[in-house]
Design brief:
With 213 residues, the chain is mostly helical. The chain has 2 domains: 71 residues, Orthogonal Bundle (Arc Repressor Mutant, subunit A); 133 residues, Four Helix Bundle (Hemerythrin (Met), subunit A) (Up-down Bundle). The chain is built from 9 helices and 2 strands; from the N terminus they run αααββαααααα. Strands 1-2 form a two-stranded antiparallel ribbon. The longest helix has 22 residues. The radius of gyration is 19 Å and the shape is globular. Keywords: DNA-binding, Transcription, Transcription regulation. InterPro entries: GntR_C, TF_FadR/GntR_C, Tscrpt_reg_HTH_GntR, WH-like_DNA-bd_sf, WH_DNA-bd_sf. This is GntR family transcriptional regulator.
């Protein structure tokens, strides 16, 4: 691949990541119409990398066509959310159990430090809470050693994250005790305890969301 093609690929990847973060953080909210030219101008990119990025997001189901064929941000419904949690309940506890064998001590120390900072702060920044949540769940998925598990968990977490952030359902310190239990099990390399802690955590999330409806 020549330098120009490599640069185009890198720019497309960067554009994709920027748009994905805007969707996950609800800056681009569900139902918003995607205006390709305006987005390209705002992000300072040409139409080519923008189209590439939008195509990837559409392929992942985060962008959809409405009845008129206009590209919009997918609205994540309660049914979508609950179905995503159901899939996570099927596979994420297994990923947590498998991660006990491979997750590094350094990663666990970093996660423990982040969680302690959240616990100590009377009003932690929501962005930092989400950063920790991503680091924990993505770290576990990656350490499971199963790329297919990690890919599915990542996809399902995008749906649940969008739903929670768009509807501002996260508590000030969501799942603190649950996250502590998961980290303790991982640190002790106790696969069954990690499986149980992750199951409990996801069940708590599901019940908390249903209680708001």
């Amino acid at each position: 691949m020549d330098e120009a093609a490599t640069a185009d690929r890198s720019l497309a990847d960067e554009t994709y990541r920027s748009l994905l973060e805007e969707i996950l953080s609800a800056q681009l909210s569900g139902g918003a119409v995607i205006q390709e030219r305006r987005l390209a101008l705002r992000l300072g990119v040409s139409r080519s990398p923008m189209r590439d990025a939008l195509g990837r997001l559409e392929g992942q189901g985060l962008l959809v066509r409405n009845a008129k064929g206009v590209l919009t941000v997918k609205v994540i419904t309660l049914a979508d959310y609950l179905n995503s949690i159901a899939v996570r309940l099927l596979i994420e506890p297994s990923a947590a159990a498998q991660a006990c064998n491979a997750i590094s001590t350094e990663t666990l120390q970093t996660l423990r430090g982040m969680l302690e900072a959240i616990d100590a702060d009377p009003d932690p920044a929501p962005a930092f809470i989400w950063e920790f949540d991503d680091a924990l769940h993505n770290g576990i998925a990656s350490a499971s050693g199963n790329r297919f598990l990690a890919d599915i968990i990542g996809q399902m977490r995008r749906y649940t994250t969008i739903f929670e952030r768009q509807r501002k359902l996260a508590q000030r310190k969501p799942g603190l005790a649950d996250h502590q239990a998961i980290l303790t099990a991982l640190n002790e390399r106790d696969g069954e305890a990690a499986r149980s802690a992750m199951t409990q955590h996801l069940e708590h999330i599901r019940r908390n969301v249903l209680s708001t409806y």
